[in-house]
């Protein structure tokens, strides 16, 4: 899958309260914590004092502890817990910082720490790696007193980054300005009005005028699709048309025609009729989605007497049969309503696979009736000492009522989600993370074991155990856990998996939803695991095919594969399920495992970051026979920050991802467009010189594209949607549409010219048609509004924007620009600080950027 490489600082960060313009919901989410913090009177402030300490890429910060309460803070007998941070105290006599587990750490007073009287403050110097963006600071602070070890009290936090990023901000704004300068503002008549870009599009003739008198005619096989279209028309005109089998006069037709592909359709619009033709319901549905994107954005906001639909002829089919998005609701939870919104936007843009990442170290989010502890314990994050929950992570805080840390989907919720997806031709692929990333499940089954042992039911207690209770193995996962790996030698592990799989299958059956595969994770199992498990040693002594702990990998996925095959399913997983560890010249390498190459394993290949040695891994696995879903971190990890700016939230271990990254991805030749390293700098091309290209055989094994959105830094739905959109539009375009001309052109100069033209067209479509639609569609989405590009040119502040159709507004008096501030029309002559902020058509603003103009006119 994923995630942070060993040693990268701050494994999980939340969006900071100080960046209010990024998330409008943060104050509401933290209100309870703030009230609790105020009641106990402790507050914290972190000030970044040095971001390049001793020129070694380290930071030095000053943590100020202020006692605002009526009682003294004692000199000892307490701990301050927090998430994130490879922090250490500069002076261990004042305080020590220790790792608890996962991303949870704590600071404890040292022998030199003095009692803190009411109204007094104390400072502690802490060190860590250099800060790169707002997500790099510790979050989720709470205090625990030794006298009450099971009670955590939230503590408020203020971040003061100082002036360390001002120069970099000016430089970055200038870089954005130069990139935006290549984007042309195109007239509406030059834009393709169906999105994603169809195979064939012609705008011709007079429009169709949609009104309340229009009849909807559908063949019997397309009844469900007709109901969907009728609901759309009711939104636009206020009248839901009756669905008929024939009609006279103006009408919209859904017609079945044999011989077309399962997702293929044609769409014809003229003044008298709109006709969508397809062979299968999915094709008819995608024709309806294209019709939706023909409608003006206002059709989803206000009912109108008539709505104009441009006259067009469209013939279309997808490039890939797998067009996926992975939603991580395990690390930080998202409510059912947000899942449904995700399905709505996926359907609109013809994406058809929702990878449902419901289980992780930090949360199990799906009710499994025979095992209620999975959600009662594994779905709850809180500071407890009795095993009734799992520990706080990613800033979720000490209380179980935190909506980011605690929550799950009931059986009824999930069935509703499945039906909603089914009706939108989206297959939901559930992921049971295993054998790693399984701490929530392991701890839930531990709680079950303890309860049943207390009742004297030893056999039942051991039935679903996921670890050997006598295992003394020592390991540490990439995310910092030392107890998150299932023991794959235990028969009870497979009993657990069978129970979960069969319960999931029953939900799909009840929902009448398709289930072809279950994703079993399979990534990031650390070294050291299983080595001192008595159960493992027994298996090795009894099974001739398992000679060491490395062989357990193939043993496990062989058994899981068989479990699924017996149920008519195939196995999906992260790339590691299809890899074998080999040692060559003393060096460990991972190569495609021929044992499973012809077993129809579908693998999400995520590792392609430059310098990893795995840049070509997706092609190597496809060439070896694995069904590959291109999921490369460099282009598709939507949780990564948009850019290197300090104010941009998100991780960056795999680089930075804006909407352009998925847009310029070339599926069958992506090595060609690996352009940046993990810091956003131009890539040294020698790194990928000798990498393995995709063969014709391998090309047939590339089944599609998927974009994951991991949730470490998403405490709110706003934070989630901010990262999801507009990046998802680039993913949808590349997954559906054929290779553009620039991708096929071999001459670099010609290709670059064609790309520049295509990029302008795409940004105009996004800025003028699709984002305005998403202001209203499905209740509206909180997509990211781009930050203005800006630089001083000839003594004036010049500015531009990524998406034509958006407006830049500015102030010169130090105030925050609002939707009423002057609109930027030409370079600004004012000296000093010029604040610039981009607004969409609905009047919502993005982040403000300040440009210092020191020029003298």
UniProtKB/TrEMBL annotation:
<keyword id="KW-0378">Hydrolase</keyword>
<dbReference type="GO" id="GO:0005975">
    <property type="term" value="P:carbohydrate metabolic process"/>
</dbReference>
<dbReference type="InterPro" id="IPR017853">
    <property type="entry name" value="GH"/>
</dbReference>
<dbReference type="Pfam" id="PF03174">
    <property type="entry name" value="CHB_HEX_C"/>
</dbReference>
<dbReference type="InterPro" id="IPR025705">
    <property type="entry name" value="Beta_hexosaminidase_sua/sub"/>
</dbReference>
<keyword id="KW-0326">Glycosidase</keyword>
<dbReference type="InterPro" id="IPR013783">
    <property type="entry name" value="Ig-like_fold"/>
</dbReference>
<dbReference type="Pfam" id="PF03173">
    <property type="entry name" value="CHB_HEX"/>
</dbReference>
<dbReference type="GO" id="GO:0030203">
    <property type="term" value="P:glycosaminoglycan metabolic process"/>
</dbReference>
<dbReference type="InterPro" id="IPR015883">
    <property type="entry name" value="Glyco_hydro_20_cat"/>
</dbReference>
<protein>
    <recommendedName>
        <fullName>beta-N-acetylhexosaminidase</fullName>
        <ecNumber>3.2.1.52</ecNumber>
    </recommendedName>
</protein>
<dbReference type="InterPro" id="IPR029018">
    <property type="entry name" value="Hex-like_dom2"/>
</dbReference>
<dbReference type="GO" id="GO:0004563">
    <property type="term" value="F:beta-N-acetylhexosaminidase activity"/>
</dbReference>
<dbReference type="InterPro" id="IPR004867">
    <property type="entry name" value="CHB_C_dom"/>
</dbReference>
<dbReference type="GO" id="GO:0030247">
    <property type="term" value="F:polysaccharide binding"/>
</dbReference>
<comment type="similarity">
    <text>Belongs to the glycosyl hydrolase 20 family.</text>
</comment>
<dbReference type="InterPro" id="IPR015882">
    <property type="entry name" value="HEX_bac_N"/>
</dbReference>
<dbReference type="InterPro" id="IPR012291">
    <property type="entry name" value="CBM2_carb-bd_dom_sf"/>
</dbReference>
<feature type="domain" description="Chitobiase/beta-hexosaminidases N-terminal">
    <location>
        <begin position="40"/>
        <end position="189"/>
    </location>
</feature>
<keyword id="KW-0732">Signal</keyword>
<feature type="signal peptide">
    <location>
        <begin position="1"/>
        <end position="23"/>
    </location>
</feature>
<dbReference type="GO" id="GO:0016020">
    <property type="term" value="C:membrane"/>
</dbReference>
<dbReference type="InterPro" id="IPR014756">
    <property type="entry name" value="Ig_E-set"/>
</dbReference>
<dbReference type="InterPro" id="IPR008965">
    <property type="entry name" value="CBM2/CBM3_carb-bd_dom_sf"/>
</dbReference>
<dbReference type="Pfam" id="PF00728">
    <property type="entry name" value="Glyco_hydro_20"/>
</dbReference>
<dbReference type="InterPro" id="IPR004866">
    <property type="entry name" value="CHB/HEX_N_dom"/>
</dbReference>
<dbReference type="Pfam" id="PF02838">
    <property type="entry name" value="Glyco_hydro_20b"/>
</dbReference>
<feature type="active site" description="Proton donor">
    <location>
        <position position="524"/>
    </location>
</feature>
């Amino acid at each position: 899958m994923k995630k942070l490489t060993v040693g990268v600082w701050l494994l999980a960060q939340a969006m900071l309260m100080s960046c209010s313009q990024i998330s409008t919901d943060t104050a509401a989410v933290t209100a309870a914590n703030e009230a609790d913090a105020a009641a106990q009177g402790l507050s914290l402030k972190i000030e970044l004092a040095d971001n390049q300490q001793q020129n070694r890429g380290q930071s030095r910060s000053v943590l100020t502890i202020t006692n605002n309460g009526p009682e003294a803070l004692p000199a000892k007998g307490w701990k301050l817990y927090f998430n994130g941070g490879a922090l250490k105290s500069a002076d261990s006599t004042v305080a020590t910082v220790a790792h608890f587990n996962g991303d949870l750490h704590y600071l404890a007073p040292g022998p030199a720490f003095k009692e803190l009287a009411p109204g007094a403050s104390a400072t502690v110097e802490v060190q860590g790696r250099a800060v790169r963006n707002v997500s790099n600071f510790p979050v989720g602070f709470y205090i625990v007193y030794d006298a009450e070890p099971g009670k955590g009290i939230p503590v408020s936090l203020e971040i003061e980054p100082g002036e360390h990023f001002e120069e970099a901000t000016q430089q970055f704004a200038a870089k954005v300005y130069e990139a935006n300068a290549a984007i042309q503002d195109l007239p509406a008549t030059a834009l393709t009005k169906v999105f994603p870009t169809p195979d064939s599009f012609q705008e011709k003739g007079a429009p169709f005028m949609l009104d309340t008198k229009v009849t909807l005619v559908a063949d019997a096989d397309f009844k469900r699709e007709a109901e969907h279209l009728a609901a759309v028309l009711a939104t636009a005109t206020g009248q839901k048309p009756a669905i008929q089998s024939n009609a006279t006069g103006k009408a919209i037709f859904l017609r079945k025609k044999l011989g077309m592909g399962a997702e293929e359709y044609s769409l014809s619009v003229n003044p008298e009729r709109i006709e969508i033709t397809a062979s299968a319901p999915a094709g008819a549905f995608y024709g309806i989605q294209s019709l939706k994107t023909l409608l003006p954005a206002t059709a989803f906001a206000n009912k109108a007497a008539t709505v104009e639909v441009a006259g067009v002829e469209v013939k279309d089919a997808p490039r890939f049969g797998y067009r996926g998005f992975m939603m991580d609701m395990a690390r930080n939870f998202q409510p059912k309503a947000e899942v449904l919104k995700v399905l709505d936007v996926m359907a609109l843009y013809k994406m058809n696979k929702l990878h449902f990442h419901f289980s992780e170290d930090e949360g199990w989010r799906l009710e499994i009736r025979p095992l209620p502890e999975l959600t009662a314990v594994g779905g709850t994050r809180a500071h407890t000492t009795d095993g009734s929950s799992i520990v706080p992570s990613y800033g979720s805080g000490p209380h179980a009522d935190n909506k980011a840390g605690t929550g799950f989907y009931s059986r009824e919720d999930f069935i509703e989600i499945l039906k909603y997806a089914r009706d939108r031709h989206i297959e939901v692929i559930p992921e049971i993370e295993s054998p790693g990333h399984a701490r929530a499940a392991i701890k839930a089954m531990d709680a079950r074991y303890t309860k049943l042992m207390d009742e004297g039911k030893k056999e039942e207690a051991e039935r679903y155990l996921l670890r050997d209770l006598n295992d003394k193995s020592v390991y540490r996962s990439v995310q910092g856990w030392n107890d998150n790996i299932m023991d794959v030698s235990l028969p009870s592990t497979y009993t657990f998996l069978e129970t979960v799989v069969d319960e999931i299958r029953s939900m799909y059956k009840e929902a009448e939803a398709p289930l072809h595969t279950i994703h079993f994770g399979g990534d990031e199992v650390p070294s050291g695991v299983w080595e001192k498990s008595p159960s493992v040693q027994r298996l090795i002594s009894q099974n001739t095919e398992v000679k060491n702990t490395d062989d357990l990998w193939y043993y496990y996925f062989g058994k899981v594969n068989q479990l699924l095959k017996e149920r008519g399913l195939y196995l999906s997983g992260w790339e590691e399920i299809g890899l074998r560890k080999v040692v060559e010249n003393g060096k460990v390498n991972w190569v495609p495992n021929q044992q499973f190459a012809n077993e129809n394993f579908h693998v999400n290949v995520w590792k392609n970051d430059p310098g990893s040695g795995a840049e070509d891994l997706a092609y190597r696995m496809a060439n070896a026979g694995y069904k590959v879903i291109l999921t490369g971190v460099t282009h598709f990890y939507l949780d990564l920050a948009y850019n290197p700016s300090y104010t941009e939230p998100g991780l960056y271990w795999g680089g930075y991802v804006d909407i352009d990254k998925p847009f310029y991805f070339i599926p069958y030749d992506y090595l060609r467009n690996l352009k940046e390293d993990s810091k956003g700098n131009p890539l040294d091309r020698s790194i990928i010189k000798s990498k393995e290209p995709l063969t014709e055989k391998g090309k047939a094994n590339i089944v599609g594209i998927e974009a994951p959105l991991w949730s470490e830094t998403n405490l709110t739905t706003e934070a989630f949607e901010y990262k999801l959109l507009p990046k998802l539009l680039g993913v949808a375009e590349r997954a559906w549409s054929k290779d553009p001309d620039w991708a096929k052109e071999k001459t670099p100069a010609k290709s670059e010219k064609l790309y520049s033209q295509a990029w302008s067209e795409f940004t105009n479509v996004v800025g003028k048609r699709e984002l305005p639609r998403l202001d209203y569609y499905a209740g509206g989405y909180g997509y990211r509004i781009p930050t203005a590009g800006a630089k001083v040119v000839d003594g004036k502040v010049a500015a531009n924007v990524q998406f034509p159709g958006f407006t830049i507004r500015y102030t010169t008096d130090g105030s925050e620009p609002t939707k009423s501030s002057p609109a930027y029309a030409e370079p600004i002559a004012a000296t000093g600080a010029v604040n610039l902020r981009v607004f969409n058509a609905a009047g919502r603003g993005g982040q403000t950027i300040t440009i210092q103009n020191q020029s003298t006119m």
